[in-house]
Amino acid sequence: MSNPRVGRDVYWRRRLLVLAILIAIVWGVLQLIGLVRGDDAGKAEATRPTPTPTTAPTAPPTTPPADQVAVAIETDEAVCEPENVRIVPSVPGGQFAGGPVAIDLMLTSLDGTACTFRPSTRELLVVVDTERAPIYDSSVCRAAFFDQSVSIPAGWSTVAPVEWTGRGSGAGCGSSEGFAPPGTYTLKIGTYGGEPGEVTFKLARRAPETPETKPTPAPAKKPGSEPTQKATSEPTQKPAPRPKPSSTAPVPR
């Protein structure tokens, strides 16, 4: 007869052994899963692109370059003395006769002091002429050649764009005066008592505008106005004349 106590010890030992085996198997599976996940994470980390650091754009230096020098231009509202102002004119090329003419005037203070030039008919003289005769004389006009004030800084020159109407002065510089024809002209400008300037320029002839020719539309046909063909008169054929019966009587047999 077996000892029931020994049987119970063996039973519990077997149960503990099975439990230990199950724990070991579970632990081993968990370790294996951890190794697999670690390898996958390492591969993903290795294949992930490494971000390159971006540098923010640097602001341009506020200090001027060494080869540039800041210059302070001195101006003055005091009126320039006419004899101390030198005017050098220039006329851009490619201009046409029959319209206004653009002119650039470079004004310089001869004594080197800053001032403001205010032109007037008493202080400015402008003459435009050709080899044959004068075309424009500002002394005939009641208004100045240009009326804008020009500030001339000390030791510098100022370029002022002005415009000549392109018309002759005539008796009173009226708007009814004709335009200067195509040709070569000389412009002389200066202040009374000052140093004048001179430039020669050309005014070209403007190409005539050719009128646009439009095709003449065909006249619309009115309903029922279709032309009818006239019937041609064909020659009529007359029947040949029948032979007349002979007047000879038949001879009896």
TrEMBL record:
Disordered, as annotated region: 42-66, 201-253
Compositionally biased spans, kind Pro residues: 50-64
UniProt biased composition (Polar residues): 226-236
Protein's name according to its UniProt entry: DUF4232 domain-containing protein
